[in-house]
Amino acid sequence: MNSQIQMQATDERPHAVVIGSGFGGLAAAVRLGARGYRVTVLEKLDAPGGRAYVYRQDGFTFDAGPTIVTAPFLFEDLWKLCGKKLSDDVELRPVTPFYRIRFDDGVTFDYTGDAAQMRAEVARLSPSDVDGYERYMKASEETFRVGFEQLGHVSFDDWTTMAKIVPQMVKLKSYLTVYGLVASYVKDERLRTVLSFHPLLVGGNPFSTTSIYCLIAHLERRWGVHFAMGGTGQLVTGLIGLIALQGGSVRCNSEVDHITLDGQKATGIKLKSGEQITASVVVSNADSAWTYKHLLPAKVRKRWTDSRLQKARYSMSLFVWYFGTKRQYDDVAHHTILLGPRYRELLEDIFKHKTLANDFSLYLHRPTATDPSLAPQGCDAFYVLSPVPHLASGTDWSTEAVRYQNALCETLSATLLPGLKDEIVTSHCLTPQDFQDRLNSVQGAAFGLEPILSQSAWFRPHNKSEDIENLFLVGAGTHPGAGLPGVLSSARVLDSIVPSASAFTNNASEFTHHV
Fold first, then answer.
1. Which of 21, 49, 284 is nearest to 294 (CA)?
2. Of 49, 109, 224, 285, which has fewest CB within 10 angstroms of its CB?
3. pTM above 0.85, yes or no
4. What angle do CA 323, 326, 329 make, to 5 degrees?
């Protein structure tokens, strides 16, 4: 530590501190480093990645969180900033089908990026909906042109920015929900489900999430769905290498207690250990609601008050079960969505009633379908993810987790993974309580604020704090939202709102010191 402090003391670049080493925080660090800042990333856990943490046990490798890589150019841009290529460190391999969707009656639908194959799949389900599907994909492309290409990297720190896009949003029918827009084009209920499930990947209810998220369909078709060989953790490792190349650092086991202030200006952070770190710029990749509620005193918060945070709507949470099997299930796709008997009603239980239902729809990840190295020879690695209510449900996960895991095991055994119970050789679970206690998510919400219209763009916590000077936010809880393209784009927003490093005058006290 002493040698690190000495190196930092002789580094005259302005210092930027990033709270959290999720993809938003790591991408922000690279972008700030490219703009002349000395960057320190602080991580609470014992290893980097945040929601992209990696579990390794019994010879298996499990990506804790994001496993679907879309818009890979957002990663490529970060490597270019450092004079390198993404392929120097990470191999992204296309996955097809993007998703295999299994309905409760056993009928399947392979969702791909091939236009002809998708028309054939649609026709197999509902021949009369093929034309409507084509028109929906055109609408998705139009929404993508505005929502992603024009606005995905724009800072909504001024209400006039929002006002200017209202006519475009009205034209694109952003006032409709995702399901509502899909239903206006296709009539078959199974097809409506296939085309509207995407918001669940970013914490939203298709029946309440603004239809701007329909852009995901075109985004996936344009760039495909990819998997990082070696696991998503390889992207984390690669980004940390870029930060080191720039002279920055990532410190684990370093939980932030609060952001230090001079009036309404951020001056750095203080760790739980008592160590204080000063900085010209503070970037929080922590949950945005957690940042305001726990890292800043109430007296300095004019917009994100305790009352406002209490009234906000938070995303659903997740129950995630990671497990390895001593046999392989070769007929199971890389990404599978198992739909239960209910769709709208189940989502109402999760989002509206905050009730832990007895039925569920699941996302099953089998990375060894693409990369066998993630499990011992002859074995498979899996995780199954079940959307569940956040902690406002009152569920006691310390007693409920085992029962719920057994219920998932029974469902998987009866559908895709016969004999599963007897094949499991390693297991680990993540519950909504873990999202709160381990990942500092308010209410244990897995994706921060719910992406409804009244909590999007200008209405979402801004990338440039409305309350505190020199404090900036990245990650799922700020603009543009959750998902890898969203959190990487939130870091891209910083390019236009964080002052140039030359705007700050270094002083001798701008390095780590103990209090």
1. 284
2. 224
3. yes
4. 80
